[in-house]
Protein backbone atom coordinates (compact mmCIF):
# COMPACT_ATOMS: atom_id res chain seq x y z
CA UNK A 1 0.00 0.00 0.00
CA UNK A 2 2.84 2.34 0.85
CA UNK A 3 4.53 1.48 -2.45
CA UNK A 4 1.40 2.17 -4.46
CA UNK A 5 0.83 5.45 -2.73
CA UNK A 6 4.37 6.61 -3.52
CA UNK A 7 4.01 5.79 -7.22
CA UNK A 8 0.65 7.49 -7.31
CA UNK A 9 2.14 10.71 -5.90
CA UNK A 10 4.96 10.69 -8.46
CA UNK A 11 2.52 10.24 -11.34
CA UNK A 12 0.32 13.07 -10.14
CA UNK A 13 3.39 15.35 -9.87
CA UNK A 14 4.48 14.57 -13.42
CA UNK A 15 1.00 15.20 -14.77
CA UNK A 16 0.85 18.62 -13.01
CA UNK A 17 4.34 19.95 -13.95
CA UNK A 18 4.58 18.50 -17.50
CA UNK A 19 3.02 21.51 -19.32
CA UNK A 20 5.44 23.90 -17.63
CA UNK A 21 8.43 21.78 -18.51
CA UNK A 22 7.42 21.76 -22.18
CA UNK A 23 6.07 25.28 -22.64
CA UNK A 24 8.05 27.17 -20.00
CA UNK A 25 6.79 29.99 -17.80
CA UNK A 26 3.98 31.89 -19.65
CA UNK A 27 5.65 35.33 -19.36
CA UNK A 28 8.85 34.06 -20.95
CA UNK A 29 7.18 32.61 -24.03
CA UNK A 30 6.73 36.07 -25.60
CA UNK A 31 9.61 38.09 -24.12
CA UNK A 32 13.14 37.41 -25.31
CA UNK A 33 15.89 37.43 -22.75
CA UNK A 34 17.86 40.61 -22.11
CA UNK A 35 20.84 39.29 -24.03
CA UNK A 36 18.69 38.19 -26.94
CA UNK A 37 16.83 41.53 -26.97
CA UNK A 38 20.09 43.50 -27.01
CA UNK A 39 21.54 41.32 -29.72
CA UNK A 40 18.38 41.64 -31.80
CA UNK A 41 18.37 45.47 -31.40
CA UNK A 42 21.99 45.78 -32.47
CA UNK A 43 21.33 43.59 -35.49
CA UNK A 44 18.35 45.75 -36.44
CA UNK A 45 20.31 49.01 -36.05
CA UNK A 46 23.19 47.60 -38.00
CA UNK A 47 20.81 46.67 -40.76
CA UNK A 48 19.35 50.21 -40.81
CA UNK A 49 22.84 51.76 -40.87
CA UNK A 50 23.93 49.52 -43.66
CA UNK A 51 20.79 50.35 -45.60
CA UNK A 52 21.25 54.12 -44.99
CA UNK A 53 24.90 53.99 -46.04
CA UNK A 54 24.00 52.04 -49.13
CA UNK A 55 21.26 54.54 -50.04
CA UNK A 56 23.67 57.46 -49.50
CA UNK A 57 26.28 55.79 -51.69
CA UNK A 58 23.68 55.18 -54.37
CA UNK A 59 22.65 58.86 -54.26
CA UNK A 60 26.27 59.98 -54.53
CA UNK A 61 26.86 57.62 -57.46
CA UNK A 62 23.80 58.98 -59.24
CA UNK A 63 24.94 62.60 -58.61
CA UNK A 64 22.20 63.44 -56.08
CA UNK A 65 23.41 65.63 -53.13
CA UNK A 66 22.27 64.87 -49.62
CA UNK A 67 23.13 68.35 -48.20
CA UNK A 68 24.79 71.62 -49.23
CA UNK A 69 27.11 73.68 -46.99
CA UNK A 70 29.37 76.65 -47.86
CA UNK A 71 33.04 75.86 -47.71
CA UNK A 72 35.45 78.14 -45.88
CA UNK A 73 36.29 80.48 -48.76
CA UNK A 74 32.76 81.52 -49.88
CA UNK A 75 31.67 81.73 -46.24
CA UNK A 76 34.53 84.15 -45.55
CA UNK A 77 33.36 86.37 -48.41
CA UNK A 78 29.77 86.33 -47.16
CA UNK A 79 30.87 87.10 -43.58
CA UNK A 80 33.09 89.99 -44.71
CA UNK A 81 30.29 91.52 -46.79
CA UNK A 82 27.81 91.15 -43.93
CA UNK A 83 30.23 92.76 -41.46
CA UNK A 84 30.75 95.79 -43.72
CA UNK A 85 27.02 96.24 -44.37
CA UNK A 86 26.10 95.98 -40.68
CA UNK A 87 28.81 98.52 -39.81
CA UNK A 88 27.70 100.98 -42.53
CA UNK A 89 31.19 100.78 -44.01
CA UNK A 90 29.87 101.56 -47.46
CA UNK A 91 33.12 101.88 -49.37
CA UNK A 92 34.40 98.57 -47.99
CA UNK A 93 30.97 96.99 -48.50
CA UNK A 94 30.95 97.94 -52.18
CA UNK A 95 34.35 96.33 -52.63
CA UNK A 96 33.31 93.24 -50.62
CA UNK A 97 30.20 92.92 -52.81
CA UNK A 98 32.32 93.03 -55.95
CA UNK A 99 34.65 90.34 -54.58
CA UNK A 100 31.69 88.16 -53.56
CA UNK A 101 30.13 88.41 -57.03
CA UNK A 102 33.44 87.71 -58.75
CA UNK A 103 33.52 84.40 -56.87
CA UNK A 104 30.35 83.13 -58.64
CA UNK A 105 32.39 81.53 -61.40
CA UNK A 106 34.45 79.51 -58.91
CA UNK A 107 31.46 77.52 -57.60
CA UNK A 108 30.78 74.43 -59.71
CA UNK A 109 27.91 72.84 -57.77
CA UNK A 110 24.56 74.27 -58.95
CA UNK A 111 22.78 74.05 -55.59
CA UNK A 112 25.70 75.64 -53.71
CA UNK A 113 25.88 78.44 -56.29
CA UNK A 114 22.14 79.08 -55.93
CA UNK A 115 22.36 79.41 -52.15
CA UNK A 116 25.51 81.56 -52.39
CA UNK A 117 23.83 83.94 -54.87
CA UNK A 118 20.78 84.18 -52.62
CA UNK A 119 22.97 85.14 -49.64
CA UNK A 120 24.84 87.78 -51.68
CA UNK A 121 21.56 89.16 -53.07
CA UNK A 122 20.07 89.56 -49.57
CA UNK A 123 23.15 91.44 -48.38
CA UNK A 124 23.07 93.65 -51.48
CA UNK A 125 19.46 94.56 -50.66
CA UNK A 126 20.54 95.45 -47.12
CA UNK A 127 23.37 97.56 -48.53
CA UNK A 128 20.93 99.45 -50.76
CA UNK A 129 18.52 100.08 -47.89
CA UNK A 130 21.42 101.26 -45.74
CA UNK A 131 22.54 103.79 -48.35
CA UNK A 132 18.99 105.10 -48.67
CA UNK A 133 18.75 105.49 -44.89
CA UNK A 134 22.12 107.24 -44.81
CA UNK A 135 20.92 109.73 -47.43
CA UNK A 136 17.41 110.33 -46.11
CA UNK A 137 17.91 109.62 -42.40
CA UNK A 138 16.06 107.46 -39.90
CA UNK A 139 14.46 110.28 -37.89
CA UNK A 140 13.57 113.97 -37.98
CA UNK A 141 17.26 114.90 -37.85
CA UNK A 142 17.56 113.60 -41.39
CA UNK A 143 20.49 112.06 -43.20
CA UNK A 144 23.43 113.48 -45.10
CA UNK A 145 21.11 115.22 -47.61
CA UNK A 146 19.59 117.24 -44.77
CA UNK A 147 23.04 118.12 -43.45
CA UNK A 148 24.14 119.18 -46.92
CA UNK A 149 21.08 121.43 -47.29
CA UNK A 150 21.80 123.02 -43.91
CA UNK A 151 25.35 123.82 -45.00
CA UNK A 152 24.09 125.22 -48.33
CA UNK A 153 21.73 127.53 -46.43
CA UNK A 154 24.53 128.66 -44.09
CA UNK A 155 27.19 128.76 -46.84
CA UNK A 156 29.40 126.68 -44.58
CA UNK A 157 33.14 126.96 -45.40
CA UNK A 158 33.49 123.17 -45.10
CA UNK A 159 30.80 122.51 -47.70
CA UNK A 160 33.14 120.45 -49.85
CA UNK A 161 33.21 117.62 -47.28
CA UNK A 162 29.43 117.20 -47.38
CA UNK A 163 29.45 117.38 -51.17
CA UNK A 164 31.88 114.49 -51.46
CA UNK A 165 30.05 112.56 -48.74
CA UNK A 166 26.73 112.76 -50.59
CA UNK A 167 28.26 112.30 -54.02
CA UNK A 168 29.86 108.99 -53.04
CA UNK A 169 26.60 107.58 -51.66
CA UNK A 170 24.56 108.70 -54.65
CA UNK A 171 27.04 107.12 -57.04
CA UNK A 172 27.07 103.82 -55.13
CA UNK A 173 23.27 103.72 -54.94
CA UNK A 174 22.90 104.53 -58.64
CA UNK A 175 25.26 101.70 -59.58
CA UNK A 176 23.39 99.18 -57.40
CA UNK A 177 19.75 99.85 -58.29
CA UNK A 178 17.32 101.82 -60.46
CA UNK A 179 14.58 101.79 -57.82
CA UNK A 180 15.20 105.25 -56.33
CA UNK A 181 15.15 107.74 -59.25
CA UNK A 182 13.39 110.43 -57.19
CA UNK A 183 15.93 110.30 -54.38
CA UNK A 184 18.89 110.28 -56.77
CA UNK A 185 17.54 113.23 -58.82
CA UNK A 186 16.84 115.23 -55.65
CA UNK A 187 20.38 114.55 -54.44
CA UNK A 188 21.86 115.59 -57.79
CA UNK A 189 19.96 118.88 -57.75
CA UNK A 190 21.20 119.57 -54.24
CA UNK A 191 24.78 118.70 -55.22
CA UNK A 192 24.58 121.09 -58.18
CA UNK A 193 23.56 123.92 -55.84
CA UNK A 194 26.32 123.06 -53.39
CA UNK A 195 28.99 122.87 -56.07
CA UNK A 196 27.84 126.18 -57.51
CA UNK A 197 28.28 127.79 -54.09
CA UNK A 198 31.70 126.25 -53.51
CA UNK A 199 32.85 126.66 -57.12
CA UNK A 200 33.92 130.29 -56.68
CA UNK A 201 35.80 129.54 -53.46
CA UNK A 202 39.43 129.00 -54.49
CA UNK A 203 40.65 127.64 -51.11
CA UNK A 204 37.77 125.17 -51.02
CA UNK A 205 38.50 124.06 -54.57
CA UNK A 206 42.09 123.40 -53.50
CA UNK A 207 41.00 121.46 -50.43
CA UNK A 208 38.61 119.41 -52.56
CA UNK A 209 41.38 118.69 -55.08
CA UNK A 210 43.70 117.50 -52.30
CA UNK A 211 40.95 115.35 -50.79
CA UNK A 212 40.42 113.74 -54.19
CA UNK A 213 44.12 112.89 -54.37
CA UNK A 214 43.91 111.13 -51.00
CA UNK A 215 40.93 109.12 -52.23
CA UNK A 216 42.33 108.34 -55.65
CA UNK A 217 45.77 107.30 -54.41
CA UNK A 218 44.71 105.53 -51.22
CA UNK A 219 47.09 102.60 -51.73
CA UNK A 220 50.79 102.89 -50.83
CA UNK A 221 53.12 103.51 -53.79
CA UNK A 222 50.15 104.38 -56.02
CA UNK A 223 50.88 108.06 -56.78
CA UNK A 224 52.61 108.70 -60.18
CA UNK A 225 55.78 110.41 -58.94
CA UNK A 226 58.36 112.04 -61.12
CA UNK A 227 61.61 109.99 -61.01
CA UNK A 228 63.43 113.17 -59.90
CA UNK A 229 61.58 112.92 -56.55
CA UNK A 230 63.39 109.65 -55.79
CA UNK A 231 60.11 107.91 -56.63
CA UNK A 232 58.18 109.78 -53.97
CA UNK A 233 60.75 110.15 -51.21
CA UNK A 234 60.90 113.86 -52.04
CA UNK A 235 57.43 114.08 -53.60
CA UNK A 236 55.70 116.67 -51.41
CA UNK A 237 56.07 119.59 -53.85
CA UNK A 238 54.75 117.46 -56.73
CA UNK A 239 51.70 116.37 -54.71
CA UNK A 240 50.80 119.96 -53.75
CA UNK A 241 51.43 121.11 -57.33
CA UNK A 242 49.03 118.44 -58.55
CA UNK A 243 46.35 119.71 -56.16
CA UNK A 244 46.91 123.33 -57.23
CA UNK A 245 46.69 122.35 -60.90
CA UNK A 246 43.48 120.33 -60.36
CA UNK A 247 41.95 123.35 -58.58
CA UNK A 248 42.87 125.61 -61.53
CA UNK A 249 45.29 127.76 -59.49
CA UNK A 250 48.55 127.03 -61.33
CA UNK A 251 49.34 125.23 -64.57
CA UNK A 252 52.80 123.85 -63.93
CA UNK A 253 54.27 121.11 -61.74
CA UNK A 254 57.04 122.06 -59.30
CA UNK A 255 59.35 119.59 -57.56
CA UNK A 256 60.86 122.04 -55.03
CA UNK A 257 58.84 123.46 -52.13
CA UNK A 258 60.10 127.04 -52.46
CA UNK A 259 59.22 127.04 -56.17
CA UNK A 260 55.58 126.26 -55.26
CA UNK A 261 55.57 129.16 -52.77
CA UNK A 262 57.12 131.49 -55.35
CA UNK A 263 54.32 130.65 -57.80
CA UNK A 264 51.67 131.47 -55.17
CA UNK A 265 53.43 134.69 -54.17
CA UNK A 266 52.95 136.23 -57.61
CA UNK A 267 50.32 139.00 -57.41
CA UNK A 268 47.62 139.78 -58.40
CA UNK A 269 47.33 136.34 -60.00
CA UNK A 270 46.92 133.94 -58.25
CA UNK A 271 46.84 136.47 -55.37
CA UNK A 272 48.14 134.76 -52.24
CA UNK A 273 49.66 136.41 -49.18
CA UNK A 274 51.85 135.26 -46.33
CA UNK A 275 50.04 134.90 -42.98
CA UNK A 276 50.77 133.96 -39.40
CA UNK A 277 49.29 130.68 -38.16
CA UNK A 278 47.56 129.43 -36.12
CA UNK A 279 44.67 129.94 -36.46
CA UNK A 280 44.51 128.10 -39.75
CA UNK A 281 42.00 128.37 -42.59
CA UNK A 282 41.10 125.59 -44.97
CA UNK A 283 43.13 126.07 -48.15
CA UNK A 284 46.25 127.51 -46.50
CA UNK A 285 49.44 126.29 -48.15
CA UNK A 286 52.10 125.74 -45.51
CA UNK A 287 55.72 124.63 -45.36
CA UNK A 288 57.31 122.90 -42.40
CA UNK A 289 60.80 122.73 -41.02
CA UNK A 290 61.87 119.09 -41.12
CA UNK A 291 65.54 118.49 -41.85
CA UNK A 292 65.69 122.14 -42.97
CA UNK A 293 63.38 125.17 -43.27
CA UNK A 294 60.74 124.70 -46.01
CA UNK A 295 61.70 121.03 -46.05
CA UNK A 296 58.10 119.87 -46.48
CA UNK A 297 54.92 121.37 -47.98
CA UNK A 298 51.20 120.64 -47.72
CA UNK A 299 47.66 122.07 -47.69
CA UNK A 300 45.53 122.74 -44.59
CA UNK A 301 42.03 121.24 -44.91
CA UNK A 302 40.15 122.52 -41.84
CA UNK A 303 39.80 125.74 -39.82
CA UNK A 304 40.97 126.57 -36.30
CA UNK A 305 43.98 126.48 -34.03
CA UNK A 306 44.21 122.71 -34.35
CA UNK A 307 43.69 121.74 -37.96
CA UNK A 308 44.32 118.91 -40.39
CA UNK A 309 46.52 119.01 -43.45
CA UNK A 310 47.29 116.87 -46.48
CA UNK A 311 50.81 116.25 -47.71
CA UNK A 312 52.99 113.54 -49.21
CA UNK A 313 54.12 110.62 -47.08
CA UNK A 314 57.69 109.58 -47.93
CA UNK A 315 57.25 106.22 -46.21
CA UNK A 316 53.86 105.33 -47.74
CA UNK A 317 54.50 107.03 -51.10
CA UNK A 318 51.02 108.60 -51.25
CA UNK A 319 49.13 111.71 -50.03
CA UNK A 320 47.93 111.39 -46.43
CA UNK A 321 45.95 113.41 -43.84
CA UNK A 322 47.76 114.45 -40.66
CA UNK A 323 47.94 117.11 -37.94
CA UNK A 324 48.79 120.53 -39.38
CA UNK A 325 51.31 121.12 -36.59
CA UNK A 326 53.07 117.78 -36.90
CA UNK A 327 56.31 119.73 -37.54
CA UNK A 328 57.30 123.36 -36.83
CA UNK A 329 55.75 125.64 -39.46
CA UNK A 330 58.15 127.65 -41.62
CA UNK A 331 55.61 129.77 -43.50
CA UNK A 332 51.92 129.80 -44.50
CA UNK A 333 50.23 131.33 -47.56
CA UNK A 334 46.54 132.20 -47.92
CA UNK A 335 44.35 133.28 -50.83
CA UNK A 336 43.45 136.96 -50.45
Report the β-strand fraction as a percent range: 5-15%
Radius of gyration: 40 Å
Structural class by helix and strand composition: alpha+beta
Mean pLDDT: 81
- In the CATH hierarchy, what is the class of the largest domain? Alpha Beta
How far apart are the termini? Answer: 152 Å
Number of helices: 11
Number of discrete domains? 3
Return the string of H and E elements: HHHHHHHHHHHEEEEEE
- Tell me the CATH superfamily of the largest domain: endopeptidase domain like (from Nostoc punctiforme)
The shape is elongated
Helical content stands at 55-70%
How would a textbook summarize the main sheet?
6 strands, antiparallel
Give a verbal description of the structure.
It is a single chain. This protein is α+β, with helices and mostly antiparallel strands. The chain has three domains: 72-136, no CATH class; 144-199, no CATH class; 209-335, endopeptidase fold (from Nostoc punctiforme) (Alpha-Beta Complex), CATH 3.90.1720. Helices cover 56% and strands 10% of the residues. The chain is built from eleven helices and six strands. The chain has a six-stranded antiparallel β-sheet with strand order 1-6-2-3-4-5. Strand 4 (308-313) and strand 5 (318-323) form a beta hairpin.
Outline the fold blueprint:
Elements: H1 2-23, H2 34-62, H3 72-86, H4 90-102, H5 110-136, H6 144-154, H7 159-176, H8 181-199, H9 202-216, H10 236-246, H11 257-265, E1 272-275, E2 285-288, E3 296-300, E4 308-313, E5 318-323, E6 329-335
Antiparallel strand pairs: 1-6, 2-3, 2-6, 3-4, 4-5
Helix pairs in contact: 3-4, 3-5, 4-5, 5-7, 6-7, 6-8, 7-8, 7-9, 9-10
Amino acid sequence: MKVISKKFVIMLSLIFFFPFLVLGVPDQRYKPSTKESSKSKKTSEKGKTSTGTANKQEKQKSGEKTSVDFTAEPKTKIDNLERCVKGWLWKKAIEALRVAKDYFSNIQDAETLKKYKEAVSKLQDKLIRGLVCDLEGLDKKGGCLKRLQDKIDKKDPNLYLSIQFVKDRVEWLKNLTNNYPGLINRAKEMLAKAEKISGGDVPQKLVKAMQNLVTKYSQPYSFPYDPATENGNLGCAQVVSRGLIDAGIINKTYLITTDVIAALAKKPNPGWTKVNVPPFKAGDVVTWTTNQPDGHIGVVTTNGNTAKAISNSSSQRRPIIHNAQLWPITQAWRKV
